[in-house]
Amino acid sequence: MHQLTIASTTYRSRLLVGTGKYKDFAETRAAIDASGAEIVTVAIRRTNIGQDASQPNLLDAVPASRFTILPNTAGCYTADDAVRTLRLARELLDGHPLCKLEVLGDPTSLYPNMPETLKAAQTLVKDGFHVMVYCSDDPIQARMLEEIGCVAVMPLASLIGSGMGILNPWNLRLIIDNASVPIIVDAGVGTASDAAIAMELGCDGVLMNTAIAHAQNPVLMASAMKKGIEAGREAWLAGRMPRKLYSADPSSPTSGLIGS
């Protein structure tokens, strides 16, 4: 299958995973390994990657030599906070430009604040960041983010942590059909079938955290998500049969049968 390319770097896996909500770093690493993911996102405001030398460092369990670390701005509610957070992350990661921008609208829904997201994206792109951006499933604003220079657009499937799956496939298709950068579903996936549906729609990848970390068996769910991504991608490449109502079409030919 064709590989995923983001900001001129190619990846075998189309599954991107988060690192929060696990019981410890050992479980985090085990789930990431089972997922096959190569891009791992880290909430800079919540996870130690060197900010506090007295605390365990996630990078000891998930080293940058093995994974592409994707710092994100979870917990930021203004463009200024998001930009400040990612500039700190770039320093901690020795100039690493790839980042995930998210600017939230409120702490209850965690829905993106799109005016602040667009403002932050403009600043970060001008500052040399390779911006992957969490956004609403609005095709117009998705196009605006691409025009700003974001390297991947990441519309939500449903609310962060909800596990509600793909609630608006039609908007996702509008975004996909008009994009020239990768479209990666971010937020709302609950189980492997949700991931497969996203890929069958033509998404380039899926980012998830809670669906794996809050499963009863996170490592097994990570493995299931890996398979769901792969199956959905293959189905999209294969091209599904057309849907037909009340149109009988036997799987085997009827001509030449005994007695006919």
Automatic annotation (TrEMBL):
A Pfam family annotated for this UniProt entry: ThiG
Keywords: Cytoplasm, Schiff base, Thiamine biosynthesis, Transferase
Keyword NAD carried by entry: no
SUPFAM superfamilies in the cross-refs: ThiG-like
One cellular component (GO) term of this entry: cytoplasm
Molecular function in Gene Ontology: thiazole synthase activity
Annotated metabolic or biological route of this protein: Cofactor biosynthesis; thiamine diphosphate biosynthesis
Entry's EC annotation: 2.8.1.10
Function: Catalyzes the rearrangement of 1-deoxy-D-xylulose 5-phosphate (DXP) to produce the thiazole phosphate moiety of thiamine. Sulfur is provided by the thiocarboxylate moiety of the carrier protein ThiS. In vitro, sulfur can be provided by H(2)S.
Assembly description: Homotetramer. Forms heterodimers with either ThiH or ThiS.
Family: Belongs to the ThiG family.
The protein's name in its UniProt record: Thiazole synthase
Organism: Candidatus Dechloromonas phosphorivorans
